[in-house]
TrEMBL record, chain A:
Keyword Glycoprotein: no
PROSITE patterns: N6_MTASE
Annotated compartments: Nucleus
Protein name, UniProt field: Methyltransferase small domain-containing protein
GO function terms (MF aspect): nucleic acid binding; protein methyltransferase activity; S-adenosylmethionine-dependent methyltransferase activity
Recorded GO CC terms: eRF1 methyltransferase complex; nucleus
Organism of derivation: Nyssa sinensis
Family: Belongs to the eukaryotic/archaeal PrmC-related family.
Gene3D superfamilies cross-referenced by the UniProt entry: Vaccinia Virus protein VP39
Keyword match Methyltransferase: yes
One record GO biological process: methylation
From TrEMBL, chain B:
Subunit-structure text: Interacts with TRM9.
InterPro entries found in the cross-reference section: Trm112, Trm112-like
GO biological process entries: rRNA (guanine-N7)-methylation; tRNA methylation
Molecular function in Gene Ontology: protein heterodimerization activity
Organism: Nyssa sinensis
Protein's recorded name: Multifunctional methyltransferase subunit TRM112-like protein
Domain of life of the organism encoding this protein: Eukaryota
One Pfam family recorded for the sequence: Trm112p
Lineage: Eukaryota, Viridiplantae, Streptophyta, Embryophyta, Tracheophyta
Amino acid sequence: MLWQDSCKMSARTAQIRFVSSHFEVYEPCDDSFALVDALLADRINLLEHRPTVCMEIGCGSGYVITSLALMLGQEAHGAYYLATDINPHAVRVTRETLEAHGVHAEVITTDIASGLERRLAGLVDVIVVNPPYVPTPEEEVGCDGITSAWAGGENGRSIIDKILPVADNLLSDRGWMYMVTLTANNPSEICLQMREKGYAARIVVQRSTEEESLHIIKFWRDFDSQVEANEMVTTNRAAPTRIVESMLSQFPRLPFWKYGNDSCN
Amino acid sequence: MRLLTHNMLSSNIKGVTNGFPLRIEVEKVVEKPVDFNADFLKNMFAKIEWKALVDASRILGYAELPDEAEPSMLDSDDFLKKFHHALLELHLEEGALVCPETDRRFPVTKGIPNMLLHEDEDINNSAAFLNADTV
Ligand SMILES: C[S@@+](CC[C@H](N)C(=O)[O-])C[C@H]1O[C@@H](n2cnc3c(N)ncnc32)[C@H](O)[C@@H]1O
């Protein structure tokens, strides 16, 4: 047990050698590491935020939720950690990974947050999600086995588009969400959708690997941006589609797209 | 599964209007000590459906919670200790959660509730999944 204690004291992220595995469960990969790096980069803000309820959707091996619990310190803030996955093997593996690190999260086998949405509505302060985001034929989404860990359907958006409204329902007034996206997912359009729901967004980590370019985007409720977004939607309705598209392609330069760590969150 | 989680779960079957609280069938309860944190309990208190917690804790064999609770009780250490124990330390390790409207069972195995529904399952056919052999 000694290593557990020392791990709990010193490590701020889960240790790969103590992450449990199963052949049908997604192993921690570049995207998982990028998400945890984003959380680490924002750790000071998270500590000040003092979340009471933290949740991961699609926990896979448990690497991310375990890291979050370790970096925020279970006991210091006494947060309630929850993790869901649609794959029962993943949920079991997550439980083992949490136990191996001496931290606790409640784990639930479910589709996104089904069964939790009514009672947890408006209570979740932090959501983290590394969704299945790889563009694939629609039939591969949600099919059995490891494929469902990455298969994201058209533009990789099938599951992401289901998660967004659920997250909006679950997040508290001061809620934050960290989400992994791929360039092919059209992150600018995701941000625009979230903006219409009243969220501001910024890129916390951007990483290009040989195969993919990942963005970890942080969303937070921002009532000013909701007003602006509504205005923009009204304006856009009159604008030709071509202009809307060209505006979206310039997305990184739009004012609500906040770069760096110096902005409000 | 902690009773805090039981307090946050409802039946997710399409068409069910009265899905909370889920009835508990107990096969095995375990107790796991958790560091006491009064701030956390005070934060969570307003979010808890008290009667559901009292009933659930009794089913798990813990009868110390008062039938009614109000915020002023949060000043009492004795109350907080009991609330802490019921909310966080009692775990349903094996058993099931049962939809109060359709009697559909959601198994709890190794402390993990399985809320997955079968494709096309809804209020009209979910009785067929009563003893669903969900994975
Ligand atoms: C890309 S993996 C990420 C795993 C882990 N969070 C990580 O970062 O290493 C996506 C995970 O989402 C899960 N998943 C896919 N569809 C889901 C759904 N509808 N509801 C919940 N989880 C889902 C998959 O089983 C898989 O474990």
